[in-house]
Amino acid sequence: MRADLIIKNIGHLATMRGANRPRIKEEMNDIEILENAYIAIKDGKISYIGQGHIIDGLIGENTDVHDAKGLTVTPGLIDPHTHLVHGGSRENEFSLKISGVPYIDILKQGGGILSTVKSTKEASLDQLYNKAKKSLDIMLGYGVTTVESKSGYGLELDTEKKQLEVNKKLNENHPVDIVSTFLGAHAVPKKYKENPDEFVDIIIDMLPKVKDLAKFCDVFCEEGVFSVEQTRKILNKAKEYGYKVKLHADEIVSIGGAELAAEIGAISADHLMAASEEGMELMAKNKVIANILPGTSFSLMKNYAEARKMIEHGVPVALSTDYNPGSCPTENIQLIMQLGSLALKMTPNEVLTAVTINAAYSVDKADEVGSIEVGKKADLVVFDAPNVDYIMYHFGINHTHSVYKEGKLVVDNKKIVY
Ligand code: IZC
Ligand code: ZN
Description:
binds 2H-imidazol-4-ylacetic acid, single chain, binds zinc ion, alpha/beta, globular, 9-stranded mixed β-sheet
């Protein structure tokens, strides 16, 4: 079959092909790397992967041929945990934070998430869209082609819907694919401080009203925010309405978030800086993906999640930016990948697994993206790097040379061209 596009002369091609499930243990490190490779693309999908001479029949009159000049190619990166859509910023809390005031205390004083709730309510849909689009372009520039994006800065129906509608519009208009998550249970509004269970019922009422706009439901399960019991109640209802579920678990205090994720069949448990060993064992047994966010540890100046221990236990690990205006104001997935190695002690191959195929499973999109395989979307990054190790080793810079989204060149020689 003639291809629309062939990308030839790929020095190292990390296909991430393998078992059709989240990768665990040594599978995370044992990735397939093809040298002197090429990829054929037809109708936005990968149609053939080869090495050496390009086989007969692929190149026709209308086939474009791009030369990767011996560089490294990976699947488009996936950022499976972000708070992309929000109003305002929180640099006014930065000095407090670096002077040692805990994140959760800033929230208790009405700042933190509640401050962003105010800015998000005040912003129009267009303002939110334009701000999120700017961030999404930055993400794309780092090689990200799929992003999970949460609501959670409304805490009432209209603003939650406004955020989810921005997700929908971005998904339609921007080359990056958006996976939309309802996070109505992100903080307890001041007026429900004395009776948070009443607010839990309000969230449960919202579930059917935003179902068309969100695939996942998430809860910030944390001491002083939503308890394990409240989280269980919301997520079990969400499952009845057809949501897939995930949760912010054991970020600051070990309260049994990892255990709850295993119990209710969450696709992922996210953060896990304070996860217990028993929680990890249960996650491994129940195939819950650990979505680790080392940029948040760095930015909060706190401990890192025990990624090595999780991998040893057989928990599949994914990595995300957690891009948000409070605990992790960065869109830079490559910095997160570098922290994956330098702070979490994951090998570069494990890191790449965590931001491609395991990240794809954690947003339930592994049938379409996350690896370079015939039939999957031709979402690809050409890194200006001689091999995968180099991307983690040479830290603090953007290694992206170009990005293809469904076979279309969207970043060319570091410039956005869609
Ligand atoms: O705006 O602070 N952790 N939610 C839970 C966040 C961080 C986002 C924020
Ligand atoms: Zn988060």
